[in-house]
Amino acid sequence: MRQLQIGSCLHFLGTHNDLPELLSVFDLFLLTSGNEANPVSILETMSYELPVVATNVGSISETVKNRATDFLIPPDSAEALSQRVIQLLSHSGQTEEMSQRGYQAVVTVCHGGRLSKSYLQDLSVQGFQATRQRNASAVDGNSRLRGRVN
Q1: Which sequence spans correspond to the domains of the chain?
Q2: Third-level CATH fold of 24-138
Q3: pTM score, two decimals?
């Protein structure tokens, strides 16, 4: 990180139990695994109306609908990853639309019986509160996405 001079932009946080607080400051969520089933972390992230970039492995494509809700990238493709990250950070209007569709996808999945109702309610309440806080910050000119990439 020192050699690339990215220490101020990238943080390795370790294990945390304060998901709502953490996700409320994220610009986007990356899942770059080489092997996954269908991780709950994607659903949690989408419930916070955050954009997701994930590798197209396992059953991730069942949740992440490429370009409709979020982006799927080929595994081991640093170029595709960097292109999608730059695209999301550069086009806040598109990002917000995709994030809202992602949230609706989570609601559909959870209401469709694939996750428990209490889990959905917990995600929705936490996500709603975090989204309201983010939106209040955006009104004050501190939007997560706007003006980040030139």
Answers
A1: 24-138
A2: Rossmann fold (3.40.50)
A3: 0.69
